[in-house]
Design goal:
37% helix, single chain, alpha/beta, 190 residues, six-stranded parallel sheet, Rossmann fold, 7 helices
């Protein structure tokens, strides 16, 4: 049995590793317009990670950003995941500096709400977008990705729809979160 590596500092908090080289990440999920803390992605994250999905009044984007800013301070996640409208909220948090950690954007709608939306430099952001998305054009994720640091931004174009049903069902969504957390952990320790 390998020796216990002991506690490790991750994103401003100490995590007890107990022999696991990378414990499951703490995930803050920002739901979309039709999502909720009881939605399928929120439940999936709650089943597999220590996860929070704060409820938001999506009719007030500024209030949504504030709800999530407070959640970041209180929960101190390892990974931020934003879906569609929630992706736009996540991009606003990145732009304001309220969040600088690894971020997974799912069929993000940031450019839909703000044509001038950009990613900050030196932040790890993965954008997953279905090639069959009929609500938000995949080109929006390509354009947003091009504004970030090329070595820190990754676009995952998948054969899927806007809610990424297939990626949820086949386990890809969970794999992306774990891989993103691992890649950032390796980068932070290098």
């Amino acid at each position: 049995m390998p020796p216990d590596p002991g506690p490790v500092e991750r994103y401003g908090r100490t995590v007890e590793r107990k022999g696991d080289p990378m414990p499951d990440p703490r995930v803050l999920f920002i739901h979309g317009l039709e999502g909720s803390p009881q939605g399928s992605k929120a439940r999936l994250f709650a089943e597999h990670f220590e996860a929070r999905t704060p409820a938001m009044d999506t009719s007030d984007p500024a209030a949504c950003v504030e709800v999530q800013r407070r959640a970041i301070e209180d929960f101190r996640p390892d990974v931020l995941v934003g879906s569609s409208f929630g992706g736009a909220v996540a991009v606003a948090l990145l732009a304001s500096g309220a969040w600088r950690g690894p971020t997974l954007l799912l069929a993000q709608a940031a450019i839909h709400y703000d044509e001038a939306a950009t990613l900050p430099k030196d932040v790890t952001v993965w954008l997953a977008h279905g090639t069959r998305d009929t609500l938000i054009p995949i080109e929006h994720s390509r354009r947003l990705a091009a504004t970030g640091s090329p070595d820190r931004v990754r676009v995952l174009e998948v054969d899927d729809d806007h809610p990424l049903h297939a990626s949820v069902e086949n386990g890809d969504l969970l794999d992306w979160v774990r891989a993103l957390a691992r890649s950032e952990s390796r980068g932070a320790s290098a």
